[in-house]
Specification:
With 269 residues, the chain is an alpha+beta fold. It has helices at residues 12-42, 45-57, 60-68, 74-93, 96-99, 103-127, 138-166, 222-248; strands at residues 5-7, 70-71, 175-177, 180-182, 193-195, 200-205, 209-214, 217-219, 262-263, 266-268. The chain contains eight helices and ten strands.
């Protein structure tokens, strides 16, 4: 005879958090719709498509929660909504990437932190499940979280590279480089020649057009990619260390649970 189960009812604190989540979701969704209307009136159909994509991404936390029977902490869910809004609407459409120098850096660091949290939760849930006879050490769980985060970061850089090379975008932001070294300047000996006094670089394009860059040359993405991976590394390291401490003392580091998805609790009827 099968046992009937029922969902646990949320307490007052959880109900308040749910209301806050809904409020944040509705406000951000309203702002996206306003932006979509504005961009459609301007005829910026690429931006309209980004707004539509953002609305779809906003539904992911709910879909993931229902499909995989996991509970997303209120803090994590709000951060995910704000992350999507900051990357797509503020970053791409409102050009925060260009206006604020470290906007992209902030988002990639946060991505490293959150991806490590998700990777950590996947292993920690299995580690605490009685059906699995193998119990992984805390250090191994933290290592898996770190590797999971770095893998997500690398895959995203692949997406940026593909968008730039096959869709004509510029997700790997160009940078002005003031010095470099290259063995291409001495191919006979294959020795890197250091160049650290670039007067100016002239780029000719579209036959007659040109742009002059003073005191440097235009790098087309490698510096941005490596910077993104490095800050992703920092975010992953930070959470992996916190996750390791959480496993060793769950009561003292209980605040970490705000960022870790967990299995939904059920009660036998």
């Amino acid at each position: 005879m099968k046992k009937e189960v029922k969902k646990t009812e949320p307490n007052k604190k959880e109900k308040r958090q749910i209301k806050i989540n809904i409020a944040v979701y509705l406000i951000l969704r309203f702002l996206v719709i306003v932006c979509m209307v504005e961009q459609s009136l301007k005829g910026n159909w690429h931006s309209v498509l980004l707004c539509f994509l953002t609305l779809i991404l906003f539904t992911l936390p709910t879909i993931v929660s229902k499909t995989f029977k996991v509970k997303l902490p209120a803090t994590l869910e709000i951060i995910v909504y704000l992350f999507i809004f900051s990357a797509e609407i503020l970053g791409e459409i409102q050009n925060f990437y260009g206006i604020f120098k470290h906007w992209d850096t902030m988002l990639h660091t946060l991505n490293g932190f959150l991806s490590a949290a998700i990777g950590f939760s996947l292993i920690d849930i299995l580690n605490r499940t009685e059906r699995f006879h193998i119990k992984l050490s805390p250090i191994f769980v933290a290592l898996v979280a770190f590797c999971f985060s770095m893998t997500i970061g690398v895959l995203w850089e692949f997406c940026e590279f593909a968008a730039d090379n096959y869709l004509g975008r510029d997700m790997q932001k160009d940078r002005i480089v003031e010095k470099f070294q290259s063995s291409r300047l001495d191919e006979e000996n294959n020795e890197p020649i250091k160049v650290d006094n670039i007067d100016k670089t002239i780029i000719y394009y579209n036959n007659n057009d040109k742009i002059v860059i003073d005191n440097g040359y235009l790098d087309i993405g490698i510096n941005d990619t490596m910077k993104d991976l490095f800050v992703n590394f920092i975010g992953a390291i930070v959470f992996s260390i916190l996750g390791l401490l959480y496993i060793k003392d769950r009561d003292e580091y209980k605040f970490i649970e705000r960022f870790i998805p967990s299995v939904k609790k059920i009660q036998e009827k």
